[in-house]
Model the fold of this input.
Amino acid sequence: MNKKTYQQRLQRCGSLMKTEGIDVLILVKPANMQYLTGDGRLCAYAMITKDLQVVIGVPQTDIEDVKRLAHFDHIVGFEDEVGLIHSVAHYFKDFGITKGVVGLEYAFLPAPRMGMFTHPHAKPEGVEPKDCTPLMSALRLVKDSEEIELMRQAGKVAEAGMKSAIASIRQGMTESRVAAEAEYAMRQTGADDFYKTYVSSGRRTNIAHGLPTQRILEKGDLVMIDVHPVVEGYCSDLCRTVCVGKATAEQKAAYDLYVEVLETAIAKVRQGVGIDVLEQTMHDIFTEAGHKDHIFGPPIHGIGLEFEEAPLPAGHAFFHGEKGPGPLAAGTVIALGNCGLYTGPWGVRVEDTVVVTEHGHMVLTDFPRQLLI
Done:
């Protein structure tokens, strides 16, 4: 991203801060820091004033690296958490902020870390904290062309990981080794990182988040693979279910139904449609097919700098500290297929990453939807 991109993002951020009555932001969530400064790392913070002054605080060891990567007005290094708190206090004083509102990421900060930034040694007594989670989500909601291009690249990396994982599947393999094949291929194809890779098999395909284990694949097993590679900070989400050997008639029927449901929902993705419409579309088809009791969780979530972010279905958003979603805007990127069809003996799931465009949609994860290897 070039300097102009970050300036434009800061301008939008400043407008939202004014609307929300926030005088200064203190961000520690890596995705939010990266969005506004170009660098997001642990044990660091970004401080943004309503006048759009940007401070980055990082461990002393990281200063030169951050100078090379980030966009900022001031940078400070610290040796430990006490130094971090004192550096925050220094900039409150330096900017002359003695009262007002500081935005903090309530949905990200655990209580001890919240205490760090609300401690009397960190912020002035006259500065009150306020949740800035919805502000940052609104800021990051619509992706620009550079972001979508990075997510398109991440989609290609996901396809390479899925291809390698599926090619490795055979009796005697473990779930963990299948995950390793996917992750190695993704690194080789351009992934800088990835969120957790899910691989589950047999009865374990009934669980919501199938982290890989040492379970050995057996003949007739369904294997659910879900990959989330990261390319220059941006990710994609691709899930496929395949069978070790020949699938039963029941497995094939459930799989074909899931693909039908997913493709019907994708066909409805366009500017102005509501997430609730897409979610209800999927649930209605499952219910009509007799699977009302076999679905779990919201089938849709936003994706970008994180593999799950706004927009989220209303109920899911509440528990994430987010606002309920409005109609989808062009440039929003979502993953469809986030919930599985869990029958008891086995489950199936298929998921793709989709961009909302002005005239419809574009699928970023173009990998065959086939149950049989």
